[in-house]
Amino acid sequence: MEATMRCISRHGLSATTMAHITNEAGLSTGIVNLHFGSKDTLLLATLKYVTEEYAAGWMAIAENLQLSPAERVRRLVAFDFSAKITRRDKLAVWFAFWGEAKSRPLYQKICASNDDLCASALAKLITEMGVVQGNGPETDAQAIASTYAALVDGLWLDMLLTPRQVPRQVAEQRALNFLRGQLPAYGECLNE
Question: Residues 62, 52: contact at Cβ < 8 Å?
């Protein structure tokens, strides 16, 4: 999976070949074909690997009942901009698959399912913080969660395309500033 991610990052999704991947992994084409059968199967496995890893990390924080909802939100932001998540090769993989999602329904289904899971978990936390659903765009937990997700996607794209202008710490602060503006009663909790 790691070799596949590096190849996608270097060559793009469609230009990545099994030869690229096997050379990068230091494996024979035969052994990779034995396990995956085709490039499409390997790409799908890579997408599942990345989305499952992200969702598992996200949900471990979101469901940690030892932390207050505000503390969990703060940790989710830190997770979204952690070195593990924002590695250039991983960001390139996310955008490569998102770019293909419209023409590949299975990619779209996997990406959308992951996005929905995370947005719902964040909306639930925001609701637990006292933001009531349906009271207008500035106080609607689902709207805040959805806008946060779009902001993260945009910040990740900035980090991928202009890493010197938008380093991880700057991107994380921008995301926190958005949430502080939407959840002013929790500004201090979101400062950690």
Answer: no
* CATH number, domain containing residue 65: 1.10.357.10
Give dist(CA 141, CA 122) in Å, integer: 8
Total structural domains within the chain = 1
Distance CA 48, CA 28 (A): 23
Q: At what angle do helices 105-128 and 141-161 cross, to 10 degrees?
A: 120
Greater model confidence, 60 or 163: 60
Residue 35 resides in a domain:
no
191 belongs to a structural domain: no
> Is 136 contained in some domain?
yes
Distance CA 83, CA 167 (A): 11
Residue 13 falls inside a structural domain? no
Contact status, residue 189 vs residue 107, Cβ threshold 8 Å = no
Q: What are the angstrom distances between the C-alpha of 93 and each of 86, 147, 181? A: 11, 22, 31
Residue 105 CA to residue 127 CA, distance in Å, equals: 32
Number of residues that make up the chain: 192
Nearest alpha-carbon partner for 50 in 94, 18, 17: 94
pLDDT 10s digits, 81-137: 999 999 998 999 989 988 887 788 888 888 888 889 999 999 999 988 876 544 444
Collect all residues with Cβ–Cβ distance below 8 Å to 9 and sequence separation of at least 6.
88, 89, 92, 93
